[in-house]
Design goal:
By secondary structure, this protein is mainly alpha-helical. It is built from 14 helices and 6 strands.
Length: 399
């Protein structure tokens, strides 16, 4: 039982924040606070608070040493924005806990309402912990990557390559797989299945209180999906390219330095002969003179205003987007564009075709390029023949 009022503990944390932060840094680096380290920090800060730390249950003894209680350690992690990156297999444990709770809810859907309500609350908490763990990992991985890019620790090129490869292989790629909704065993895919089930129950459950619980869970799942989608885009679009660039640049520079150490050990390719070219022709003067001479004789020119087309086509984006979403998944997006236009018009007009391809940039779809078919497909329009790749369109996220 605590020996102080809550306000007293909060004031204590504020008044002795510097000492507590030093102890937090020690535990973050070493996993424990040695007795000698505790005494040294309190002595350097002239802050004799060992008794209060134990009485207020901020730290606890582990043998002769100490450690922060979990709730205070997480508090300092949060306010200092310094999170220890979790291994993806640690985050993966939520797949079992979330899946088990979901199975219990489905099995007991017609059972005791109090038990069902508690299970829904527990599922909500597990999903929240999973989402926060992913967000913390992304924040920490981004900070580690930027430090590696700026080389704060002054690492040599070989060590930078090793560290970049370590972050990619053990953290970034496995975490990205966890967030891939198209992966059958990912947690995000499981959350999508849960949301579909909860969406039905929130509308037709007989008990109003449980129905409100399902409504709350569904809204939270939608919010969680948006958050996980942002984390996934951050990993895919920023973190992974950045750290891949670090690894590639370091490999190239390392190889170049090794070559400069022994330049005669390897045979270098022949250097091309440099030549100078000018952006204009040697006959530019004569060509310009010939061009201007054709305008010496004035001729009467009759200009007419173009007749505006009375049947100008207006692209109904929402109509075609709804059609596309109803037909997902689509194996070849450009084939679908051609077939859609042919079903309404005799020919595929170029401007209509390009207007329709603008649907590729919608946020709620996922694009997948078919690398197994490197050859481009040919699509003939009224004015040209287009060579296009095969792009597959998938559903992306919770509907």
């Amino acid at each position: 039982m605590l020996k102080a009022e809550p306000k007293t503990i909060l004031n204590f944390l504020a008044n002795h924040f510097d000492s507590l932060k030093d102890l937090f840094d020690i535990q973050s680096d070493e996993g424990i606070i040695r007795k000698e380290q505790l005494m040294q920090v309190l002595s350097e800060r002239n802050d004799p608070i060992e008794t209060q730390l134990i009485d207020y249950k901020i730290i606890r003894k582990i043998g002769d040493d100490f450690e922060f209680r979990d709730v205070y350690f997480k508090l300092f992690e949060f306010i200092l924005n310094e999170f220890r990156p979790l291994l993806p297999e640690t985050i993966q444990k939520y797949e079992q806990s979330i899946g088990k709770l979901f199975s219990k809810i489905r099995e007991g859907i017609k059972g005791d309402n109090l038990i069902l309500k508690n299970r829904i609350d527990d599922l909500n908490n597990e999903i929240r912990e999973f989402s926060e763990a992913v967000e913390k990992n992304t924040i920490r991985l981004l900070a580690e990557t930027r430090e590696l890019k700026s080389n704060v620790e002054k690492l040599d090129y070989k060590e930078k390559v090793r560290k970049a490869s370590f972050w990619i292989d053990y953290y970034i790629i496995p975490l990205n797989n966890i967030l891939d909704i198209n992966h059958a065993e990912s947690i995000t895919n499981k959350l999508f299945d849960i949301s579909q089930y909860v969406n039905v129950r929130r509308l037709n459950f007989n008990d109003e209180n449980i129905r409100l619980q399902f409504e709350k869970l569904y809204n939270f799942l939608v919010m969680t999906n948006d958050n996980l989608l942002r984390q996934s885009k951050l990993l895919t679009n920023e973190l992974l390219p950045l750290i891949e660039r670090i690894r590639t640049e370091s490999i190239i520079l390392t190889g170049w330095i090794e070559f400069l150490k022994q330049p005669y050990k390897s045979t270098v390719p022949k250097i091309f002969k440099p030549e100078r070219y000018y952006p204009y022709s040697n006959d530019m003067y004569l060509n310009a003179k010939e061009y201007l001479e054709q305008f010496v004789t004035d001729e009467n020119i009759l200009m007419e205003d173009p007749v505006a087309s009375s049947d100008k086509w207006v692209f109904n984006k929402e109509l075609y987007k709804d059609r596309m979403l109803q037909q997902l998944p689509i194996d070849s997006f450009f084939d679908w564009c051609g077939l859609t236009l042919r079903s309404e018009y005799k020919d595929i007009e170029t401007d209509k075709f390009f207007a329709l391809t603008g649907l590729l940039f919608e946020d709620d779809i996922f694009l997948e390029l078919d690398e197994k078919e490197p050859d481009r497909k040919l699509i003939k329009t009224s004015q040209m023949t287009l060579r296009v790749p095969k792009i597959k369109i998938l559903k992306y996220g919770i509907s």
